[in-house]
Design goal:
Elements lengths: L1 E2 L18 E3 L7 H7 L9 E4 L5 E2 L5 E2 L6 E8 L5 H22 L5 E4 L3 E4 L2 E10 L5 E8 L24 H25 L1 H14 L6 E5 L5 E9 L5 E5 L4 E4 L3 E4 L4
Parallel strand pairs: 1-2, 2-3
Antiparallel strand pairs: 3-6, 4-5, 6-10, 7-8, 8-9, 9-10, 11-12, 11-15, 12-13, 13-14
Helix pairs in contact: 2-3, 2-4, 3-4
Amino acid sequence: MSTSPSPAFPVTAAALWSAGATFTAPDETGSTNADLLAVATEQRHGSVLATLHQTAGRGRLDRSWTAPAGETLAASLLVRADLDERDRGWLPLVAGAAMRDAIVSVLPGADVVVKWPNDVQIAGDKVCGVLCQVATDGSVVVGAGVNLTIPADRLPTPTSTSLLLAGAVDDAPALADAVLSVFHRSVLEAVAALVAGGPAAEAVRSHVRATCGTIGRRIRLELPDGTVEEADATGIDDDGRITIRDRAGATRGVAVGDVTHLRYA
């Protein structure tokens, strides 16, 4: 393992990287996902690129990700594993659940859930988004952006929050280190379980379902073709799709869509 010196991440984070992986922490970059994708073929499974100053991040559906310098964590993790096609489809959900667990580790007792497929919310407001992208060699870069110490007057949207606003007391570097350590370990452990299959893989899928705050909610669902509907979210099927029951009582699984939890329902 090699690390890039950076005052942003205490050395405790480095202790958990997998053997042979690299940990790179630039003071500033455009996009950690883009940077890691560019060198993915040269990196080992478990390698990480992280910064507290990302200037051109992207989220799901090609949305921009606003990241005030020094107040947010942008991190990308390389996953190279012998996953079948179904389990590769679970990676975004696994990453969301792993980040939820990481945030709970610094905010014990907080109301932290995942909005399908992988937005992490605290008390209904978004604190983290996840974006998975496939590299040229078939490995997957799992990117995450976490609002660490953004005050209320600098939040990117009215429905966003930060760890600071939720009660975290550490500074941004310490929070980044703690969150990234748990996230890294949790993702790699879940990937190993999916590769192993059987009860280990089922335990991962069960944990994803247990941390998903969308299940059991009335939702607004916007599909890629622009169609919008309200429905009840009833579960996550074995392919990782959110299952819904529409107003007519028909049920189906949805693989791609933008979900909003309806607070009045």
